[in-house]
UniProtKB/TrEMBL annotation:
Cross-referenced InterPro entries: PsdUridine_synth_cat_dom_sf (IPR020103), PsdUridine_synth_RsuA/RluA (IPR006145), RluA_PseudoU_synthase (IPR050188)
Protein family per UniProt: Belongs to the pseudouridine synthase RluA family.
Pfam families in UniProt: PseudoU_synth_2 (PF00849)
Residues covered by the Pseudouridine synthase RsuA/RluA-like domain: 12-166
Protein name: RNA pseudouridine synthase
One Gene Ontology MF term: RNA binding
Lineage: superkingdom: Bacteria
Gene Ontology biological-process annotations: enzyme-directed rRNA pseudouridine synthesis
Length: 225
């Protein structure tokens, strides 16, 4: 499988992460991951010492755009942009059908908890402690059996969009950790990293990188219609 390059210049490279691949190597060294596969592909196509720097991640079952550095000079500027939330991320997701505003925002605090049933770490909103989490939401389409929602996280907490929607009764189809609609059945988590927007730290030009809606999400839209 050839991984799709979405953007490239002298400093950065953005590629399309498929659903089902972890973003980075896991404890199980035999398990394929996106970062390693992309680096392997680029080293085979370009040169054996091609540099690729990892700076953020997407959940295993989330598809969409990820950006990497191509040289060490770019590492600090990209890390700084992520740290200061100077990169605007836009996601699309298919959620449960429920009455909701055209636009709304969620500002709260999230903390890690261990789910005794799933035996996994997950996030939940808390009244004290935790870390600030802020997401802007917009309802784009209403289907017969669900909604197409745009999400713009303004902070970078684990599972932030998933938790904010699930706790509002708008669970994402295919979510196996947070409350979500079970019918119709989704092939995977219906969450897609659509777009990254930022001011280029070296040229000062506005950059917008998009990853088109994947086939399985389009097919699920038809099912919900």
């Amino acid at each position: 499988m050839s991984l799709k390059i979405l953007f490239e210049d002298d400093y950065f490279l953005a590629a399309e992460k498929p659903a089902g691949l972890p973003s980075q190597p896991t404890v199980d060294k035999r398990r394929p991951d996106f970062f390693t596969q992309l680096k392997k592909q680029l080293r085979e196509e370009r040169s054996a010492d091609f540099y690729l720097g990892l700076h953020h991640r997407l959940d295993r079952d989330t598809s969409g755009v990820m950006i990497f550095t191509k040289n060490k000079i770019a590492n600090e500027p990209l890390a700084e942009m992520f740290k200061k939330h100077l990169i605007q991320k836009t996601y699309l997701c298919l959620t449960a059908l429920k009455k909701c505003p055209d636009q709304w925002e969620v500002k709260n605090h999230l903390a890690e908890v261990r789910d005794p049933v799933l035996k996994k770490i997950k996030m939940k909103s808390v009244r004290s402690g935790g870390d600030k989490a802020h997401t802007l939401f917009r309802r784009l389409k209403t289907f017969k059996k669900g909604l197409l929602i745009e999400a713009k996280p303004l902070s970078g907490r684990m599972h932030q969009i998933r938790v904010h929607l699930a706790e509002a009764g708008l669970g994402i189809f295919g979510d196996d950790i947070y409350p979500s609609p079970k019918t119709p059945t989704a092939p995977r988590l219906m969450l897609h990293a659509l777009r990254l927007e930022f001011t280029h730290p070296f040229s000062n030009e506005p950059i917008m990188i998009e990853s088109p809606l994947p086939a399985d999400l389009k097919e699920m839209e038809k099912t919900l219609s």
